[in-house]
Here is the input.
Amino acid sequence: MQRYFDFLDQTQSRQVLAEAIRETYDDLFRVNKDAYKLSEDEIKNKLKTLTRGEKSDNVVGWMAKTFKALCDYASWEGTPKAPSESVAQVTERPSKSPSAPARSTDGLPSKSPSLHYNIQIHLPPTRDSAVYDAIFKSLRDHLL
Here is the structure.
């Protein structure tokens, strides 16, 4: 939370963003300590390696565009360099994602992304139970 408040200070927001990028994209910076200088195609190729081909070209492309856009806004002067580590060690580690990993039914991390829907229904005030029965029957017919 403190990072957000630091980011709000326009005199240091670009440096704060650079630190956050370096931390979030740690694996990419371990492959290339100056990853922020790479072209979008070079970033895309590095991300393909880091994700071990588990992401589609479209997804990797958007990841590269996002990384490049963030790096273009950030200020890299004066940000500390991450410790170097060999590529072999990086590719053996699972890639980090900004959100919590999806879990399969056995409690282990899922390999494919999953979607979760939360549906809210605002029921009309009525004493006629047939209205509620019709709503829930329709939900069952169309959602299950």
About this structure: The radius of gyration is 22 Å. Residues 2-92 form one domain.
